[in-house]
Amino acid sequence: MAEHHRARSIGTGSAHAKAILLGEHAVVYGAPALALPMKQLTVTASAGWSHRTADGRYGVLFTMTGSASRPLATEASGSLGRLAGEVKAFLGVSGGPNLDVIVDCAIPPGRGLGSSAACARAIVFALADLFGRELSQSDAFALVQTAESVAHGRASGVDAQAVGASAPLLFQGGQVRELPIGCDGLFIVADSGDTGRTKDAVGLLRSAFEQNAGAREKFVRRSRELTDAGRRALAEGRSERLGTCLTDNHELLRAAGLSTGRIDALVEAALAAGSLGAKMTGGGLGGCLIALTRMDQAREVTQRLHRAGAAHTWAVPLKGSSRHAR
Questions:
Q1: Residue 175 phi/psi, 5° resolution?
Q2: Cα(101)–Cα(74) distance, integer angstroms
Q3: Cα distance between residue 18 and residue 21, in whole Å
Q4: Contact 306, 168 (CB under 8 A)
Q5: How many angstroms separate the CA atoms of 305 and 47, rounded?
Q6: pTM score, two decimals?
Q7: Where in the cell (predicted)?
Q8: Residues pairing with 169 in the sheet
């Protein structure tokens, strides 16, 4: 590709948030995880040519906007600059004018909702669009996964897949497939207001495993059992069983030291309001809760969560299909 080839005057890309239903942390060790796309929380990236002096050696100047802009602007610009350099190298683009990239992010960072992966995916597709190139999903995943490994340490890949997914998915060992759904209901995701760091949580769990013989095998085995049971319950329309799997998974993560007092209080509030199940979601040490509820309980669950200290809540519908149930 010519160094100064300009296929577009502007390129755009987008992605969305995600929540982990079951299997976070254990997925790093090869166990399955179930992930839920949250399409109401989005990231849009716009890339164009710049006459300004860009920051760093990548020739890219980033501007962050949207409700999550301040933390992203201070923490993510370096890693996103490296990502832009990797995308250009992958596309065979070298030299040329500087670039302006504007990232509009509505996903709160540090909440386990995939903000870093979603920003990376949106930027990858915006740059590909700018240079007039098509990216396969596997190529996009590889580029986003590289950025995720910088941001979080050893990244499983589930976030990189889920922020572009159109339906709930099963992720295991780098492979992904869409989940059959036989349940109707509603997931309520509640933000505790506390920022967590996935890299810190991963390190905490790894240290615990190193200090206790057999702890990793026990944790991964139990997580696998709950994720497999939850997958079957989701397919077979057994909402109560799915809810029980969520709550039991929270107890596993809490016992590992990954929850917080505020998250535990939100779990208790959701269950007291009639949720079928509730758990922390994502890396932990802060972040969000996810609760499964019936539609007629959603109002009470949401109100209880806010009274218990939730900073924000989002409703994600779960719609079953008889042709999927089995």
A1: -100, 145
A2: 15
A3: 9
A4: no
A5: 39
A6: 0.88
A7: Cytoplasm
A8: 35, 178
pLDDT > 80? residue 73: no
Alpha-carbon gap, residue 185 to 318, rounded angstroms: 5
Q: What angle do CA 285, 275, 24 make, to 5 degrees?
A: 35
Q: Which two tokens stand for residue 264?
A: 């535990």
Q: Which domain holds residue 251?
A: 181-318
Rg of the chain on CA atoms, in Å: 20
| pLDDT digit string, tens, across residues 253-274 | 999 999 999 999 999 999 999 9
Amino acid identity for residue 137 in this structure? Q
The distance of Cα 273 from the centroid of its chain, to the nearest Å, equals 26
| Residues 128, 140: Cα–Cα separation, whole Å | 10
Spatial distance between the Cα atoms of 91 and 134, rounded to a whole number of angstroms: 10
Torsion of CA 14, 20, 21, 23, to 10 degrees: 140
* 265 Cα distance to chain centroid: 23
Question: Two tokens at 140?
Answer: 């996009």
The answer to whether residues 257 and 308 belong to one domain is yes
In a domain, 82, yes or no: yes
Number of H helices and E strands in the chain, helices first, is: 10, 10
Q: Both 133 and 15 in a single domain? A: yes
Quickly list H helices, 106-238: 115-130, 137-152, 158-162, 198-211, 215-236
What is the DSSP code (8-state) at residue 239? H
- The helix, strand and coil proportions of the chain, stated in percent and rounded to the nearest 5, come to 45, 25, 35
User: Tens digit of pLDDT for each residue in 106-155?
Assistant: 999 889 999 989 999 999 999 999 999 999 999 999 999 888 776 555 66
Using CA atoms, how far apart are residues 149 and 219, in angstroms rounded to an integer? Answer: 23
The answer to whether position 325 is within a domain reads no
Q: What burial class does residue 20 get, using C-beta atoms within 10 Å of its C-beta: 0-12 exposed, 13-18 middle, 19+ buried?
A: buried
Pair (136, 191) in one structural domain: no
Asked whether residue 233 falls in the same domain as residue 120, the answer is no
Residues composing the chain = 326
Q: Residue 265 is which amino acid? A: A
Q: 133 and 24, same structural domain?
A: yes
Tokens of 16: 């969305």
What residue has token string 């254990």? 26
